Amino acid sequence: QSDTRPVITIAVQNISNTGTLDPLREQSSNTSERWVGSILETLIARNQQGKLERVPGLASEWRRIDDTTVELKLRPGVKLHNGDELTAEDVAFSFGPERMFGNALPPDIPAIARRHWPALARVAVVDRLTVRFINATPDVTMEGRLSAGGSEIVSRRAWLEAGIWQANARHAVGTGPYRLREFKPDASLFLDAHDDYWGGRPPARALRFLEVPEAAARIDGLYAGEYQFACDIPPDQIAGIERNGKNIVQGGLVLNHRIVAFDKHHPALADPRVRLAMAHAIDGQAIVDTLWVGRTRVPPGLQWEFYGDMFLPDWRVPAYDPARTRQLLKEAGYKGEEIAYRVRNNYYAVEIPTAEILVEFWKAVGLNVAIEVKENWGQVLDRAGPRGVRDWSNSAVFDDPVSSIVNQHGPNGAQQQNGEWSNDEMNRLSPELESGTDRARRRQIFARMLQICEREDSAYIVLHQNAVFTAMPKAMKWRAPPSFFLDFSSRNFST
To answer: How far apart are CA 298 and CA 278, in angstroms?
Structure first.
């Protein structure tokens, strides 16, 4: 009762797509990334107060032993939410068969784990606070993988006491600044301060994430004081929120692109010229200027400057060219067959308005595309009935192309596993990009992948880079990071 720290209520569009708290199943950046870092943490962190560069997390230091091995030293005295001290045994368990790769798990868990760690051989315990990650093949991205979602550390004892994956999926026990009190799927997530947190006593007594699907309701709740933070603010609402001088909207570009993904098995999309025609029919800058009031951009394909020397500055998305679209459709013999376009009801910011604009672009060049609004991802991906195109997004979860183009579109990626798209050359190149150590050759491979996925055998169309905006009272001392994460640790929030 003497604890005077505030309880912070955050209105989000969605808490979890899967009804779980397991980051291996809950893969959507614009849902789970908002809260997962408050509960579970990685050995190597990303600097949320900077440019997402790698910084010490649960590991205080790390070193490369060779092309296949990284050794990490754990921080001493890190307390898990159940009171145990974090040790190397917890780390090894978090990447072991019970947690990540075992046959007793739901089949999607090891499949996703292999997407994140395609060649991990084992995690060796050197001593109580030292571990070695040993890969079966060379991998220049191991440090990046250790910083990415899916590599969070859980309590070995808590996991084993729960007994099975299903029991642990809604009861995450980690090391973050807040610990789980209650999770109600499709409704709320309540977290209490973890006062033994290694990074300092949390500034809030508790966090309440509430699922509020409609943007207008999130904004109204902010005005009424019902919520201290309202997420996923549409860009055209920012000026109105800030007009009274009491509230402010923070945010900007994040390492995520909005895309539409193809199912190339649709009869009208089997010919790659039709898919490329659909890309040339879109004026991405018009979407940026109108729906996003210039607050985002059309990026140079599925890549980010965050990639450093792997970034290809000369690459561009297919140019807006209606004449080229009509020519491609004529060559492909497209006869006006209907193409289904599956979307969610503003799961993404301004999703429905974006879909309506896209359909108008396609209609103007003779493409017959029909919007189908679905309630959930299961319906979006349902194989019953012809699947044409669908809304999606793609993130750079660490600073290398394998984190996006291979992770989502390679042989183990979601698009191929969903049975929407595949390409033999892409599947041959993906392991080479993952295991290659020659930077020049890796750049050549990545350039070829972009050519395949965005021109020759289009897997997707990149629409624009995503931007995230969060509204809050102006008096709050909090800063939006360049990611979806809502950081309420003492590093980023004070009262």
So the answer is: 16
Residue 411 DSSP label: T
Going from the C-alpha of 103 to that of each of 36, 97, 160, the distances in angstroms are: 25, 8, 16
pLDDT in tens, 96-149: 999 999 888 999 999 999 999 999 999 999 999 999 999 999 999 999 999 999
Measured in whole angstroms, how far is the alpha carbon of residue 69 from the centre of its chain? 26
Q: Fill in the amino acid letter for 473.
A: P
Q: Which residue has the tokens 């018009």?
A: 286
Sign, Cα dihedral of 413, 415, 419, 421: negative
Q: Are residues 376 and 237 in contact, defined by beta-carbon separation less than 8 angstroms? A: no
Which 3 state secondary structure label does DSSP give 394?
A: strand
- pTM (2 decimals)? 0.93
Cβ atoms of 438 and 444 within 8 Å: the answer is no
The two structure tokens encoding residue 113: 């784990």
Crossing angle (nearest 10°) for helices 424-435 and 439-451: 160
* Contact between residue 405 and residue 259 where contact means Cβ atoms under 8 Å apart: no
Contact 253, 465 (CB under 8 A): yes
Distance of CA 201 to the CA centre of its chain: 28
- Point out which residues pair with 202 in neighbouring strands: none
